[in-house]
Structure formats: C-alpha cells, structure tokens
Design a protein that fits this description.
Pfam families: DUF6894
Organism: Sphingomonas aliaeris
Protein name: DUF6894 domain-containing protein
Largest sheet: 5 strands, antiparallel
Number of domains: 1
Helix content: 25-40%
Distance between the termini: 40 Å
Oligomer: single chain
Order of helices and strands: EEEHEEH
InterPro entries: DUF6894 (IPR054189)
Shape: globular
Strand content: 35-45%
Radius of gyration: 13 Å
Length: 80
C-alpha cells in the first residue's frame, strides 16, 4: 500500500490534500481521483445547477513525486 495525495487545482488556486489516502497502486489512485472529481461536480450541480469542468486533481506520491494530473473533463462524459 502506498499513500497518495489528491491536490485540487481550481480557478488558479492550489488546494492541498494534507491527509492523502492509502491505495494499492497508481491505477487505484487515478480511479480515486476520477471518483473525487465526479463527486465534486455532482455536489456542485445539485447545489447550483451548474458545474465547472475547468479543474484538475493532481496525484502526488508519498515521496512528494508528481504522478498524474486528472482533468475533470476526463473523469466524466456528458451526453445530450
């Protein structure tokens, strides 16, 4: 198990994840970032009726090494 941190990049702001989450591997970390992004968007739509996809979650390993950037628009698909 490895600790990964999920920092939110939103409107030019860096919101740091200070706790992180223990996960088996990088693939699990990417899936967790996508779930987090979908949850944020769902909450925003429920509360305001709109959501911004111009955000991303940066995944950083417990060593401090940047691993991946998951844009919100890559975490979900919108059908008309």
């Amino acid at each position: 198990m490895h600790r990964y941190f999920f920092h939110l990049i939103e409107r030019g702001q860096f919101i740091e994840d200070l706790e992180g989450l223990m996960l088996a591997d990088e693939e699990s970390a990417i899936e967790e970032a996508k779930r987090n992004a979908r949850g944020i968007v769902a909450h925003e739509i429920r509360d305001t009726g709109t959501a911004s996809l111009d955000r991303a979650i940066e995944i950083v390993a417990e060593t401090g090494d940047f691993r991946f950037r998951v844009p919100f628009d890559a975490a979900l698909s919108i059908r008309s």
